[in-house]
Structures are given as C-alpha cells and as structure tokens.
Amino acid sequence: MPARKHDHRVEEILGLLGQGKTREEAARELGYKGYKSLHIKMTRHGFRWDRNAGRYLPVCKEKALTCPCPRQEPLGRAARIIELIGQGIGAKKAAQTLRFSDHREMAAYMAGKGYRWDPVQSNYFVRAKENIAEEKSGEQCLESAETDYTGSNNAGLFPNATRYLPLLEWLTAKQDKLEELLSGQDDSYNIPRFVIPGGFITKGVHMSQRLDQMVRDFSQEKKVSQREIFEVALVDFFRKYGYRREIDAMLKMTY
Is the pTM of this model over 0.70? Predict the structure, then answer.
C-alpha cells in the first residue's frame, strides 16, 4: 500500500517538532486550541506519537522509500548530530550534548554545512545532491537555448540574442570560479601550505566562541592543523589589505 500523502500543515508540524519544540508550543504557533487538535490532525494523516523519541513517526513502514537519503557520508560534528537525532534523543538534547547554545544554533550550523531538515525522517540529510535530475534537465534546456540563439533558422525568434553572447561566453569561461563562490564550499585539497621563516611563539587571542568552534570543526574535518588555518588566513589578509609586498618578501626568505 503506498504511503499516505500529507498536506503542508503536517510538514509544518513535523518541522516545528524537529526544531525541538513541544507539541503544545507547535500547536500554539500554528493556531490550534491545544495539542490534542494537533494530535488528531497527525493521526488522520498516518502518524503516531512516539513518547521516547518525542516526535511523530509514520505508521507506514514504507516511509524509507519516499524520503530522500544522503548521497554522501556525513563528516565530523554533522555526522554526530545525525547519529544522535537518529537515536531518538531529540534536537534539543542533541544540541545540549554537542555543546551548542540551543537547538536553533545547531540548526544554523547544519544549514551552513549543506544539510536540510527532513520532517518525515525527523533528521537531517544532505541537500547538495537533491536536484541532480533538475540540473540535468537544466543542462538540456541550456543546450536547446543555445541552439535557438545561434541557429540561423531561429534568428527571427530572438532578434536581440547576439548582444548577450559575449556575456554568456564570459560566464562559461568563469564557470568553475562562479560555482566555487556560489556553493560556499572549498576543496580542502586546494588549501595552500606556506613555509613561514623564523621561530615559533605562543600567542593568546580573544575570539568568539562560535568562531573558535568553527576553527576546531574545520581542523578536524579537513585534517588541517589550527596553526595552518591561521597562517593561511593571515597571509591572505595581508595580501588583500596593503601588505602584499611585505608578505611575499617574507615567504621568499629561507633561514
């Protein structure tokens, strides 16, 4: 029997509960008189309340066939978050266990790592791979559009098309760089390594706790030492803001 379809309100309820809110809080936010009305809504759409997990679960065992699954293995802290939530402890408890200030900060962290909350699975999944079919379809559309723009038989359909061809050619030439900028994801294998001359000292610096945690996470996930992270950041900073000649001269020193 196919999984029962549910409406947008059910998705909202699952989403709020996934954020760590109670049924009472979710019912109040969505305008229900009480959580019992919310509960009736969910049971009518094929969900049951799991007290241990603190969330609604599909009654249908075929739910795994209808839910998107991650196409890549989660890493580091993100993997731990998915593991804990999968054990049924809830988002609030998972956030507390992993030393986030609250579940909202954890949700922001996961969004920044490229994960999206799946209200049916009640867990996070990688969203970077979810539109592969759409991307292929888009590529086919672009190929078709290119034929329409450049084909002599269709010149009359797009009389102003030629004025945009230089721009399209420039965008095509810069495609890799644009994808890197828009995706917000860096390839750890492209992180430069610098041989900094001179001895080493220990320097204490005050910084945001969240920024410090981000440095720790990046260091662990990308297998890069914290010292290398700060070296690369400082070299890049000096080059961008008026010290390019000085930093380049220092990097050429060998002693």
Answer: no
